[in-house]
Amino acid sequence: MISQLLDFIFHIDKHLQTFALEHGALIYGLLFAIIFCETGLVVMPFLPGDSLLFAVGALAAQGLMRIELVIPLLMCAAIIGDNLNYWIGRKAGGWIVNQRWFKRDYLAKTEAFFVKHGGKAIILARFVPIVRTFAPFTAGFGRMDYRRFLCYSLGGGLFWVLSFSIAGYFLGSIPIIKNNIKLVFLLIIIVSILPIVIEVIKHRAEARRGRQGGAD
Questions:
Q1: Is residue 79 predicted with pLDDT exceeding 90?
Q2: Exposure letters 128-153 (e unless 16+ CB within 10 A, then b)
Q3: What is the rounded distance in angstroms from the CA atom of residue 124 to the CA atom of residue 142?
Q4: Which of 10, 81, 79 has the alpha carbon at shortest distance from 51?
Q5: Above 90 in pLDDT, residue 34?
Q6: Please, what is the average pLDDT of the chain?
Q7: How far is 208 from 31, CA to CA, in rounded Å?
Q8: DSSP H helical segments within the chain, as ranges?
Q9: Which pLDDT value is given to residue 56?
């Protein structure tokens, strides 16, 4: 399962290209479903986001899909998913966080992200895997004002989809990038999770200093 997921992520351009050639316009439905589930379902944080959007832009530049259609479609998927996740957190968050399968560590990291960035976390979280999925859920669970959440959700969804798709559209056809697309996807993933790694290191360092201070 894990190996298949990694294969899909690192070869997402090839998988999407094959699907588009074999199924035509159904590629739009597949892309909508992936982005919607990754942002809208708290059990789906492992689905690709940033790398998928970059790949979509690159494939659109090759004529496999229409950029003027796919960008608005995926913006809608990201915003609708975000809002569904908010209301799931608001209405059923208490029950969900008490389930065995729920990743409390992910929730704790997202809450720390909110403490640091405030409402802007809804926008910034779009660019951080896992946090992207848990941020709207946490906002709903914490009963953030919905109108405030909606403003951040709209801005974040539009900027996230547009930035990565356009980057893929203009950069994905450059030979050096096209020939090393797996390294590009890996770089995107590393840069995306870097804020989480930094926060974990800082948290552990603070906890270590706290224990040393207590020992003194």
A1: yes
A2: bbbbbbbbbbbbbbeebeeeebbebb
A3: 18
A4: 10
A5: yes
A6: 83
A7: 44
A8: 2-10, 12-23, 26-40, 50-61, 67-96, 104-117, 121-124, 131-141, 146-171, 175-178, 181-215
A9: 93
Of 106, 96, 94, the C-alpha closest to 200 is: 106
Average pLDDT over residues 190-198: 71
Q: What is the pLDDT of residue 214?
A: 57
pTM above 0.85, yes or no: no
> Do the Cβ atoms of 149 and 18 come closer than 8 Å?
no
pLDDT score of 27: 95
Mean pLDDT of 128-151: 87
What separation in angstroms does the CA of 19 have from each of 25, 64, 83, 131? 10, 10, 28, 29
- Cα–Cα distance for residue pair 62/196, rounded to 1 Å: 34
- CA angle (147, 114, 84) in 5-degree steps: 45
Q: How far apart are CA 140 and CA 203, in angstroms?
A: 25
Residue 44 to residues 33, 36, 81, 211, 213: CA-CA distances in angstroms? Answer: 11, 10, 11, 36, 40
Please state the domain extents for the chain: 2-215
Q: Is 130 left (phi over 0), alpha (psi -120 to 50) or beta?
A: left
